[in-house]
Amino acid sequence: MPTRLLPGLERRLKAEEVGEVRFDAFTRGRYATDASHYQIMPLGVVTPRTIEQAERAIGICRAEGVPVTPRGGGTSQAGQTVNDGLVVDCSHHLDRVLALDVAGRRCTVEPGIVLDELNRKLKSSGLWFPVDISTASRATIGGMVGNNSCGARSLRYGNTRENVLSIDAMLADGTRAHFGRTGDSDVNVPPDLVRDLLAVAARESGEIERRFPKVQRRVGGYNLDALVPGRNDINLAHLLVGSEGTLAFSTKIELKLSPLLGRRAVGACHFGSFHEAMKAAQHIVALGPIAVELIDRTMLGLAADIAMFKPTVEAFLRGDPEAILFVEFAEADWDENLRRVKRLGELLGDLGIAWDHGGAKWGGVVEVLDPKLQAGITEVRTAGLNIMMSMKEAGKPVSFVEDCAVPLEHLADYTARLTEVFERNGTRGTWYAHAAVGCLHVRPVLNLRLDKDVRAMRAIAEDAFAMVREYKGSHSGEHGDGIVRSEFHEQLFGAELVHAFEEVKDRFDPRGLYNPGKIVRAPKFDDRSNFRYGPDYRAEDIASAFDWSAYSGAGGGFQGAVEMCNNNGACRALSGGVMCPSYRVTRDERDVTRGRANTLRLAITGQLGPDALTSDDMAETLKLCVSCKACRRECPTGVDMARMKIEVLRTRSEKFGLSVHDRLVGYLPRYAPTAAKLSWLLNLRDLVPGAGKLSEAIAGFSAQRSLPKWRSDWFSETGSAANKQGTGREVVLFADTFNRYFERENIDAALTVLAAGGYRVTVATPVDGARPLCCGRTFLSVGKVGEARREMERTLAVLAPSTAADTPIIGLEPSCLFSFRDEIPSLLKSEAARQVASRALLFEEFLAREAAAGKLNLPLAPTKRRALLHGHCHQKSFDTMSAVTAALKLIPDLGVETIESSCCGMAGAFGYHADTIDVSRAMGELSLLPAVRNAPADAIIVADGTSCRHQIKDGAGRQALHVARVLAMSLG
Question: What is the DSSP string of 528-568?
Fold first, then answer.
């Protein structure tokens, strides 16, 4: 943490209304890192609501002598977006499309708009911004411009510079300027600045010709070549592209758009030798593909171990290749695409590659024509970096030489020689990315906590960059300079051009207002004082409850699990998947998995002061985490924030105890038998005027939300006619607390359906006749891990005998059932827990499995109705949505449509609390509730989660049904 504090700056920023102003240690810590290995604490963070507020904040910093770092998604891999001044976060509010000219194929946007969101808005016009980078779900256009980003299809579309028409920006002295093509009538840049810049470019034209790499993927230094007379139409905006926020603050960006891609054909070229794949790239490019993307054997293996990628890998993979090149064709003529894929196979044959060959010459082409599989391959490929980072050991793939680009004819030799460099320094690398343009990403595995590995990083960088210069390539081919590569500019460009770069910086920004230390006058790239893991970095050895032994570090591996977050920002996606639902509402870095993980890491390593883990600031950081478990599946590095939150809640509850609200939530299974007997009294809360307000004041349950209705006829095993009926295969049904006391009809329906299928059902019952069994979920949700463990052990004692007979254990409530597969084995670490986990199935999983095996015979009547299905977050996290669909499709003629939604917003008790109800409702309104309201009146709304059904009823006025009830209704 820096000792420099400027309280006057904070007061002035707040007084002059520049948006949200935060100077607290927790916020600063969340903005101290990007997707690189660097960490520099800023003075503070401003989140402006308008461009004018951003300009006002920068003006205050100019007057106070404080540097400014503009920031978008914070996904920079070279340290571009970390610095010690004021961070201006453009990603929250500055995200409008200001103008769209469909006929002219151009649009104007604010800098904070995310690429995927822009392309979603453009889709109806038949256009897109085609710089399709792997971080498209969270990277902002302003960040892409600052970085001169390139995409997988740059072979056809070029980089960002080639797709930017003009930029409006605020200069360091406060002047507003419009940068565009010289000669255009609307260009408005101070004439003396234009004159001086053109003079520098003209003076250095010879050196630019000699020293600038002649490869497409060159994004290092300033784009002085864009200003050289006679080389191109001079566009002053292109000097700002790739300047990493060091020259001006972009306020409007005009982009060139392209027609949407049509149907594509992909050839997955398998190679038995990585070297052969690299040699083939130059020949494949001659066929005119729009992309040639590489994944090597290590990447394939890592992807196959990640649940969300495994089915895709299995679909295209043949044999055991050392490398695959995915070659994409997208001509307007579909038949031409097919011809090119055929020629691709013939080309590999001409190169001596064939399926029936052995060793290095083994291989061939797997044709991929299915758009869904192509999309899956793109998802695997774009997650390449994050798949690499899923390694759990202390060493991690480190970005510093991954961005080199060399001419294609040298690609095979370069990769072979760099592999030797890694081996000499005791490490290895994994290769992926853009073979078509000679820019292959590779990260050697190093532990930057160790001095010897930091020294190895320096040695590898020196050798790698020397090779790149030998091949006349670029050491910065896509991810920019930042702290990682700026130091090496003199070796690549020469002293004269580096001096010219400094002239450009000084002419734009003589006082160093904008993002100093990038591109020019940079620190040493291996200065450990700027590292995320600095010389004094160490974690407190906290006592963890769960099993984190797969990871390294303190707390039994808890430290290593937290450090798995590499800041890639996948959790910042605003659509698709589930992660991270609360962030999609607040757009606040605090409320995203990355922000929470960074805060945890800083807290357990003492960087946020004493007792940070149990502080109110930490509680606020985790308050909007709804424990949806989406990060468990969708985070490419597997950051399980739901389980980490339990560890923090446990620590805090041990220190401070529980609030009345948390006590009522956590102990629900304990008092439920008594409460049900008093259902007539407790249900008055939503009937008597003022009772809701009283419950809000006393227990924090929002008066705006109805509470679940206690049933006087709660489910009892002895009172169910279906229990222990049937003569077929035995199954055990776990009746959870929520369905037992609030919606017993779901249990009744499940028993009826299972009995109709011929199964002999036993409801799990405590042997001593005491209160019903519980999975411990409610106790976990408030951090009472000890109480949860007691409930779990009591339940396992009943369920464990069933596992010896291979008896399926069936549950209805996803959050409860998946506790058996997730938290219980990690918490108890017993063989009984592991055995129960292996037998535990959701009701629909069991039916889908039985049907697929031909063992299910249900007499279901056909219906022409339509079912709209909302998936519980945990169903999505554990990849069981296909089972719900399969179970519903057992009903003949029923149309099933899945609602594309994230978390419903209820998330157990989250949606009932007075402090979080507004966010809960907003989460529901993102997509779920509008979809339900727009559904036909006769549509069946299906939701297996108790909370999901409550949100739908409260927010859309429709009754949602558990799949068991839908099936029971259809029994003939």
Answer: GGGBSS-TT--------SS--TTS-STGGGHHHHHTT----
Q: Number of C-alpha atoms within 13 angstroms, CB side, residue 380?
A: 32
DSSP 8-class letter at 706: P
Residue 268 belongs to what H/E stretch?
Answer: strand 265-271
Per-residue pLDDT at 105 exceeds 90: yes
Q: Do the bridges between strand 127-128 and strand 258-259 make them parallel or antiparallel, or are there none, so unpaired? A: antiparallel
The strand order across the sheet containing 760-763 reads: 760-763, 730-734, 809-811, 840-842
Per-residue pLDDT tens for 579-620?
999 999 999 999 999 999 999 999 999 999 999 999 999 999
Provide the β-strand partners of residue 128.
258
> Which residue, among 182, 192, 175, has the nearest Cα to 239 in the 3D structure?
182
Confidence (pTM): 0.93
Cα separation of 595 and 495, whole Å?
A: 40
Single-letter residue type at 794: R
Containing 47, the helix (H) or strand (E) segment is: strand 44-47
CA distance 851 to 887: 8
Cβ proximity of 55 and 251 under 8 Å: yes
**Residue 458 neighbours by CB under 8 Å, 6+ apart:** 526
Distance CA 644, CA 639 (A): 9
Q: What is the pLDDT of residue 3?
A: 45
- What percent of the chain clears pLDDT 90, i.e. is strictly above it? 84
Do the beta carbons of residue 848 and residue 835 sit within 8 Å?
A: no
CB 740, CB 779: distance < 8 Å: no
Please write down the HEC assignment for all residues of 340-351.
Answer: HHHHHHHHHHHC
Taking the C-alpha atoms of residue 921 and residue 933, their distance in angstroms, rounded to an integer, is 14
Relative orientation angle of helices 616-623 and 641-656, to the nearest 10 degrees? 140
DSSP string, 740-805: HHT-HHHHHHHHHHHHHTT-EEEE---TT--SPP--SHHHHHTT-HHHHHHHHHHHHHHHHHHHHT
Integer CA distances (angstroms), 85 to 56, 388, 534, in order: 16, 32, 20
Q: Letter for the amino acid at 352?
A: G
pLDDT band at 385 (very low <50, low <70, confident <90, very high): low
What DSSP character marks residue 571?
Answer: G
Q: How many CB atoms sit inside 10 A of residue 687's CB?
A: 9
- Both tokens of 209, joined, read 């010709």
**Cα separation values, 146 from 139, 170, 245, 902, 942, Å:** 11, 14, 6, 31, 46
The tally of CA atoms less than 13 A away on the side-chain side of residue 576 is 14
Whole-angstrom distance between the N-terminal and C-terminal Cα of the chain?
Answer: 69
SS3 string, 827-868, reads HHCCHHHHHHHHHEEEHHHHHHHHHHCCCCCCCECCCCCEEE
- Distance CA(765)–CA(772), nearest Å, equals 7
Report the 10 Å Cβ neighbour count for 908.
Answer: 17
pLDDT category, 1, cuts 50, 70, 90?
Answer: very low
Say how far apart CA 377 and CA 383 lie, in whole Å: 10
Report the pLDDT value the prediction gives residue 2, as an integer from 0 to 100. 42
Q: Which phi-psi region, left, alpha or beta, contains residue 724 (left: φ > 0; alpha: ψ -120 to 50)?
A: left
Which residue, chain included where needed, has tokens 């949860």? 788
Handedness of CA 910, 915, 920, 921 (dihedral sign): positive
DSSP H helices in 615-736: 616-623, 630-634, 641-656, 660-666, 668-677, 679-682, 691-699
Q: Return phi, psi of residue 725, to 5°.
A: -90, 165
Q: Cα–Cα distance between 884 and 851 in angstroms, integer?
A: 12
Query: What span, in angstroms and rounded, lies between the C-alpha atoms of 735 and 765?
Result: 9
Pairing of strands 730-734, 760-763: parallel
What the block records as the tokens of 185 is 């009538």
